[in-house]
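As a next step, we paired sequence with structure tokens, yielding the entry below.
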Amino acid sequence: MSQNKTALIVSAHAADFVWRCGGAIALHAELGYNVTVVCLSYGERGESAKLWKEGKTLDQVKAIRKSEAEAAAKVLGVHDLVEFDLGDYPMDFTRETRMKLVDVMRKVQPSFIMSHSKWDPYNSDHMQTTQIVLECRATAQAWGHNPGEKVLGAPQVYLFEPHQTEQMGWKPDVFLDITSVWDKKRAAMEAMNGQVHLWDFYTRAAQQRANHFKRNSGGQAGGRDCKYAEGFESIFPRTVDVL
């Protein structure tokens, strides 16, 4: 068992982890964390319009998305990419799927977990994923589930930024400076050729969050400089000794 700190990202579709928390993955990988990414699907039906318009078959779309996700994960320094291949639009979360995710949580023992916003009227796969993550976190903590296994502690769950934040009730309370690993995130985004239209969108989002990082770290009175950042909403209270 590795002595490195660990983190777990649960991504509904193959590219979600790249756009929304690629910087956090790359940064923590550089800090020595073993970051596991669970991709529940390849996003082959609902998030691959460019490939369908090119006349690709379902098998071809899945193969391309799989290859792109694996290339992006390598760029970001992902320790383990776990592919559930559940299909998407809609995603079918069976009991078997839940127990499989519980097993991953117990194996990884993450210091923190990241997933989607709690509400997403544009994409039910996203918000259902986070509901399942919270359910599985609770099950992984239960001493009566597979007695004898090491139970999960109480890792924070961070919700990464959705695509249209104003519509989704997402309220960031954490801004992470990803300037030092921005080149890795941009390279990972450019590995996702099925969604080229999002490359610049998420570049602008990172620049906007950098502005918020600077303002909330002291602003003109002495805030840290920051060129690229990601925002997250924490689910559980954070315990501190000093403010």
Summary: The chain has a mean pLDDT of 94. The CA atoms of residues 177 and 229 lie 4 Å apart. The beta strands are 6-11, 34-39, 80-83, 112-115, 156-160, 174-177, 229-234. The two ends are 34 Å apart (CA to CA).
